[in-house]
Design a protein that fits this description.
By secondary structure, the protein is mostly helical. The protein has a single domain, classed as Nucleotidyltransferases  domain 2 (Four Helix Bundle (Hemerythrin (Met), subunit A), Up-down Bundle), CATH 1.20.120. The chain is built from six helices and no strands.
C-alpha cells in the first residue's frame, strides 16, 4: 500500500486510494474479529478469543491511519504517537473533538489490546460490546 500524502502533481487520487485501502483493511480486520469471536465461543478457545481481540484492535489502528491521511497528518509509528496525533486533531477540529476519537482509541487499546489480547481477562459480553464499538469507530471515521 503506497502511503503518500503529497497532494500536488496528481497525487490526490493516490491519497484517496490509500485512505480507502486503510478503511478496507479496518473493515476486513473487524469482520475477521467477529468471525474469530464466534469460533472462539463455539470452541471455548481462549487463544481464538485473544486473537479476536487483537484483530479488532488492528481494525482501530487501520481506521485511525485512514483518518490521519484524510486530515493530512503523518502516519504514526507507535500507539503513543497515534494518541498524540489524535489529541492534536481534537484540539484543531471540533468535529473530531465531538466524536471523542482519542478517548475511544484509548479505550479500545485498553480493553482489546491490553486486557483482551495480553491479559485474556475480558468477558464474552464485554468483547461483543467492544466489537460493536470498533465498528462504530470505523463508521465514524468513514463519515468524516
Amino acid at each position: 500500500m503506497k502511503k503518500t500524502m503529497e497532494l500536488s502533481g496528481g497525487k490526490t487520487e493516490t491519497l484517496a486510494k490509500d485512505i480507502n485501502a486503510f478503511i478496507g483493511e479496518a473493515e476486513r480486520f473487524h469482520d475477521a474479529a467477529v468471525k474469530e469471536f464466534k469460533r472462539a465461543v463455539e470452541a471455548k478457545d481462549t487463544v481464538l478469543l485473544r486473537d479476536a481481540c487483537e484483530k479488532a484492535w488492528n481494525a482501530v489502528i487501520q481506521a485511525t491511519n485512514a483518518l490521519f491521511l484524510k486530515k493530512n497528518v503523518p502516519l504514526a509509528k507507535s500507539h503513543w504517537e497515534r494518541r498524540k496525533r489524535l489529541e492534536e486533531l481534537e484540539e484543531k477540529e471540533p468535529t473530531i473533538e465531538k466524536l471523542v476519537l482519542l478517548d475511544r482509541f484509548s479505550a479500545r487499546d485498553h480493553h482489546l489490546h491490553e486486557q483482551g489480547f495480553y491479559e485474556g481477562i475480558l468477558s464474552l459480553s464485554t468483547i461483543k460490546i467492544e466489537l460493536k464499538k470498533v465498528q462504530k469507530y470505523i463508521e465514524d471515521i468513514k463519515s468524516l
